Amino acid sequence: MPGFVEKPEPVEVPGLTHLHTGKVRDLYRNAAGELVMVASDRTSVYDWVLPTEIPDKGRILTQLSLWWFEQLTDLAPNHVLSTDVPAGAPADWAGRTLVCKSLDMVPVECVARGYLTGSGLAEYRQTRTVCGLALPEGLVDGSELPAPIFTPATKAAVGDHDENVSYEEVADQVGAEVAADLRSTTLAVYGRARDIARERGVILADTKFEFGFDGERLTLADEVLTPDSSRFWPADLWQPGRAQPSFDKQFVRDWLTSPAADWDRTGELPPPALPPEIVERTRAKYAEAYERLTGLSWS
């Protein structure tokens, strides 16, 4: 089963207990019971966490999430308490560390789609539905939907695929009231972010959120609206009926499926190391996404 090509050893920091190493983030708990999330420069493609890191990626994801959290505070609270680096942690943790509330997490990936692509497109081609929601005839890859839709998924372990589920299945799992809150908050946050991105010449095709409860308050967790959790397309190049250029790790995907990589994504062998030019182009694309969306420069 795919997973890490080589799983890293967790960094030991006095006063922190290592909880989990994910595809991108390492999770710790401090003495106060708060969570400490550290975004690495790892990247994952086709269910593999690759052996080659993308410099600055973890910092870009963290800083972009923080920027978005600020844009969304009136719609949904978030889990961030501080960005202070714990005493004794490596200097490299600066800019990529979040100290967060420990939430009662909802076991659902909350996906909003405003455009048809990815797994939604694959389901639509078979059934003219996405997560049980009927869609009009004639849509193609990249089509804008008549209105944004909530298409939840179950959260998968490293190396497994998230599985799209219906709204009814979510309601059965978490209760009707929580399911309704998840749907309305997800679509409200997506709508705000879509409009902000559009003003900056960027299409937010789809995105996924994770939520937890801080007491009785539904609270945004993890990362939000980054190129790892969202599909961002340059608006001036949008052309339905084909795969869209995107602000993410598409350079990595394209290289791994090219003859140059000499790798079979359906086989059992792990992917090879990335060449320097693919690493640099991918880093530049993440930085461009940050700059386009925030209006700030990435140095």
UniProtKB/TrEMBL annotation:
Residues 19-266 form the SAICAR synthetase/ADE2 N-terminal domain. Pfam families: SAICAR_synt. One of its GO terms (cellular component) is cytoplasm. Pathway: Purine metabolism; IMP biosynthesis via de novo pathway; 5-amino-1-(5-phospho-D-ribosyl)imidazole-4-carboxamide from 5-amino-1-(5-phospho-D-ribosyl)imidazole-4-carboxylate: step 1/2. The keyword DNA-binding does not apply. InterPro entries: SAICAR_synt/ADE2_N, SAICAR_synth, SAICAR_synthetase_CS. GO terms for molecular function: ATP binding; phosphoribosylaminoimidazolesuccinocarboxamide synthase activity. The keyword Signal does not apply. It catalyses: 5-amino-1-(5-phospho-D-ribosyl)imidazole-4-carboxylate + L-aspartate + ATP = (2S)-2-[5-amino-1-(5-phospho-beta-D-ribosyl)imidazole-4-carboxamido]succinate + ADP + phosphate + 2 H(+). It is an enzyme of class 6 (ligase). Its EC number is 6.3.2.6. GO terms for biological process: 'de novo' IMP biosynthetic process. Transmembrane segments: none annotated. CDD domains: SAICAR_synt_Sc. Belongs to the SAICAR synthetase family. HAMAP family: SAICAR_synth. NCBIfam families: PRK13961.1, purC. This is Phosphoribosylaminoimidazole-succinocarboxamide synthase. It comes from Streptomyces sioyaensis. The gene is purC.
